[in-house]
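Exercise 7b. C-alpha cells:
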C-alpha cells in the first residue's frame, strides 16, 4: 500500500522523483511539484487510502459479524441507499457538493436502520438480513434507474459520475469528513475485535463466552455503516472493494487472527492500484469504480470456483 501510494504521488503527466515528493509532503516549496503533488495528487492519494481503508474495514466487519461473505455493504443495499439519495438530490432537488454528500450519509444510515429493523426477530440472523438487504437494494436500484430516466443531460452526467465511484476533482475539503469518520469509527470497530471473533462461533456460543451479542452487533453495524456512508459521500460507491477485501486478506494472512486490519489495508491497496490503472494503463482514462468493477467481478468468480474445487467455503 505504501509503495502504491508513493507511485500515485510520483507518476502523472510529469514525473517527480521521490526526493521532490518528500519535500512537498514535508511542506517545502518545490517549483511545479508543490502544485501538482501538493494540490492535486496528494489529496487524491489520501482519499484513495482513506476510502479503501473504510470500505475494506466495513466490508470485513459485516462478513465476520454475519458469518457470510455476501454480507458486504454494497451487496445488502447500504451503498445503494447512499447512491439513490445522491441521485435524487442531484436530479430532482438540484443539490450539489456538500449537500449531496450529507444527504448520502443520512440515507445510508436510514437504510441500514430499515434493513436491521426488518431483519430483527429474536435477534438478527445473517441470512435473513442479507436477503432483506438484497431486496431493499433492488428497490433502491429501481429508484436510481427511474430518476436517471428523467434527468437532463448535465444532471445525468453528474449523477452517473457520482454513481460510478471516482477520485477525480478531489480536494482536501472532500477528504476531511471521510478522514475524520475513519479516525473516529475505525478504533470503535477495532475495539470490537474480540467480540466479532466470538460472533463467528454463533450467537449462543458468543453469549456463553460473555459477549453481549446484540449490543456488539449494533455497535459494529453503526460504525461500519458510518464508514461506508462517509467514504461513499466522498468518492461514490467504488464497486467490489468491500466485497473482496476480506476474502483476499484471508488468503494472505490465513485463517488465524482478526482480519480487520489486513482487510482494511487490502481495501486501500485495491483502490490505489485501480486508480493508477484507470489513469495510466489504458488509452482512455476511467474512473476508479469502473476498474474495480471490471477487475473485481472476474476475480470473484475465480475465487468462488477455486474455493469450491478445494471443497471449502468463502
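Sequence design result:
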Amino acid at each position: 500500500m505504501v509503495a502504491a501510494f508513493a507511485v500515485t504521488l510520483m507518476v502523472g503527466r510529469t514525473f517527480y522523483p521521490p526526493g521532490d515528493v518528500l519535500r512537498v509532503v514535508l511542506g517545502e516549496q518545490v517549483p511545479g511539484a508543490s502544485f501538482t503533488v501538493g494540490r492535486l495528487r496528494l489529496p487524491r492519494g489520501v482519499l484513495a487510502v482513506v476510502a479503501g481503508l473504510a470500505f475494506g474495514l466495513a466490508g470485513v466487519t459485516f462478513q465476520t459479524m454475519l458469518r457470510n461473505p455476501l454480507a458486504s455493504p454494497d451487496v445488502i443495499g447500504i451503498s445503494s441507499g447512499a447512491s439513490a439519495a445522491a441521485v435524487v438530490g442531484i436530479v430532482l432537488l438540484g443539490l450539489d457538493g456538500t449537500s449531496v454528500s450529507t444527504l448520502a450519509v443520512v440515507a445510508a444510515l436510514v437504510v441500514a436502520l430499515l434493513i436491521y429493523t426488518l431483519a430483527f426477530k429474536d435477534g438478527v440472523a445473517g441470512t435473513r438480513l442479507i436477503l432483506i438487504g438484497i431486496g431493499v437494494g433492488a428497490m433502491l436500484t429501481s429508484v436510481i434507474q427511474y430518476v436517471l430516466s428523467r434527468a437532463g443531460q448535465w444532471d445525468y452526467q453528474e449523477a452517473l459520475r457520482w454513481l460510478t465511484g471516482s477520485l477525480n476533482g478531489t480536494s482536501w475539503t472532500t477528504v476531511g469528513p471521510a478522514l475524520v469518520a475513519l479516525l473516529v469509527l475505525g478504533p470503535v470497530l477495532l475495539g470490537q475485535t474480540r467480540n466479532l471473533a466470538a460472533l463467528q462461533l454463533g450467537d449462543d456460543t458468543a453469549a456463553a463466552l460473555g459477549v453481549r451479542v446484540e449490543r456488539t452487533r449494533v455497535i459494529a453495524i453503526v460504525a461500519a455503516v458510518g464508514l461506508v456512508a462517509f467514504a461513499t459521500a466522498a468518492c461514490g460507491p467504488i464497486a467490489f472493494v468491500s466485497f473482496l477485501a476480506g476474502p483476499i486478506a484471508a488468503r494472505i494472512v490465513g485463517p488465524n487472527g482478526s482480519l480487520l486490519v489486513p482487510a482494511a489495508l487490502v481495501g486501500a491497496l485495491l483502490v490505489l492500484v485501480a486508480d493508477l490503472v484507470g489513469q495510466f494503463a489504458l488509452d482512455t482514462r476511467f474512473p476508479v469504480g469502473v476498474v474495480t468493477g471490471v477487475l473485481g467481478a472476474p476475480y470473484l468468480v475465480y475465487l468462488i470456483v477455486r474455493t469450491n474445487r478445494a471443497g471449502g467455503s468463502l
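Instructor comment: The chain has a mean pLDDT of 87. The CA atoms of residues 86 and 100 lie 5 Å apart.
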